[in-house]
């Protein structure tokens, strides 16, 4: 490392609950309040949550047509979100925003966008690791119907250069998968940004509730370190009509350390003037991919989806 710092003023805008009855315009007002606070703290970029414009609707059983009508956006920006884009352009702040996307040909994705300092959309990510199920589970206290309402993202994990920083995007469950970060780190990502809605109860198995926060932070911290990237994660959290989701929005350094973390389960802005040079050090030394990776031994990662038989054999 040459000792030169590369500061970047980064904010994460956590959202508290959005009720089923709340409309987009009221949510956008909250996003604008957070954007103004980010500006007052000198931020150049703000990370908003996954599906940030509505309640976390995949918890409700309904038809695809009803979900599409009530919760999906047909264009971005649109009438409801334009005030956010206008203010971001005026304040010269780029942002990440998650929303439910309906394409002109009728496909539905869990999507995020990346804007530059003029509020121009420069990148789009469509969620790849969709958790949950597609069928109704009437015995569960709530549903997790991402596999019913969304198609698997079809554009890969990408990285964009904006404001002289290389930023990669993913969404919620993607943050638990090592491949997500590595594919972006192989494009020289410097920051990975993401939003999430993580129910504090796991309906699929009897996971102790305290592990939800632990595994959230563990995923961010381990993958930040192993890839030499900053990770910034924005929750939508608290109890939405009685359905609770964890908070814990955080900015994590390539050292694996948390440098800022939300303390509430409400609308809350966290901020850090991060040094991108820290990531460069890790990528030049312990995680210098070009020098140390051995892809000839990683074949199973793309050959197998699920775990299969062991390949070990008795040595000659
Ligand atoms: N939104 C989202 O991806 N939530 C998942 C919940 C997993 S439990 C079905 C998450 O990984 O946080």
How does this structure look, described?
The chain is an alpha/beta fold and 316 residues long. Helices cover 26% and strands 25% of the residues. The chain has a single domain (9-303), classed as 4-Layer Sandwich (Nitrilase/N-carbamoyl-D-aminoacid amidohydrolase). The strands form three sheets. Strands 5-4-3-2-1-14 form a six-stranded mixed sheet. A six-stranded mixed sheet has the order 6-7-8-9-12-13, covered by helices on one side. Helix 1 (24-40) runs parallel beside helix 3 (82-91) and helix 5 packs parallel to helix 6. It is globular. 4-methylsulfanyl-2-ureido-butyric acid binds next to loops.
Q: Which features characterize this protein?
A:
316 residues; binds 4-methylsulfanyl-2-ureido-butyric acid; Nitrilase/N-carbamoyl-D-aminoacid amidohydrolase; 9 helices; 14 strands; alpha/beta; 6-stranded mixed beta sheet
